[in-house]
Amino acid sequence: MVKKLQKMAADKPDGTQLAAAIRESAQQIWLAGLGAFSKAQAEGGKVFEALVREGMGIQRRTRAMTEERIGEVTGKVSKAAGDITRQATQSWDKLEQVFEDRVSRALTRLGVPTSKDIQSLMKRVESLNESVQALSGTAPARARKAAAPRKAAAARAPAKKAARRARAES
Q: How confident is the model over 38-42, as a mean pLDDT?
């Protein structure tokens, strides 16, 4: 277009034809600009929709990847919590066992009988009682137990109280 205008200006020194050519050229440029704007406006909606679709796809992929990572982290945290709980339980069990052992040794040093010792003594007392009953000719203790189960329970209660008193005095 510029060459055409330069040729026209060189051929005719008359300014009317040059002005007309410039107007015509400006008109074509204006129309080309309007056409480009119209086309960009028409295709701009399509481009916008394409960008929205692409953004939604990226968002879905990102969300899926995030959920996967969250699942992995949750699994690791759960495993770590289980390990810590297991270690705490083991430590607590060891501490409890050490405490029980020390208390048992202290009670043994103080001469406090264990429940096993008391049961053994009770069996010996019962057998001695039966022997005395047999020698004295009275009814055996077992026959009385069957007749009066409450009396047997009442007879054990003082033995337990005596054991408690012995512990308290020590």
A: 80
